[in-house]
Amino acid sequence: MVDPDSTARHRRVGVVIPARNEAARIGQVLAGIASRVEDLPVLSLVVDDGSSDRTDEVAREHGARVITHAINLGKGAAMKTGCTAALAAGCDVLVLMDADGQHRASDLPAIVAPILSGKADLVLGVRRFTKEMPATARLGNWGLTRLFRLMFGASFGDTQCGLRAFTSEAYAHVDWLAIDYAVETEMLVRAARAHLRTVEVDIETIYHDAYKGTTPLDGLRILAQMVRWRLSR
Amino acid sequence: MAGIQLIAIVFGVAMAFWTYRAYRRRDLLGVEAAIWFAVWLGLILVSAFPDALRNVVGPLKVARLLDLVMIVGILLLSTLVFLLNNRVRRLERRMVELVRRLALSADEPHGSGKDSKGEVHRDPGQTTK
Question: Are residues B42 and B63 in the same domain?
Answer without folding.
Answer: no
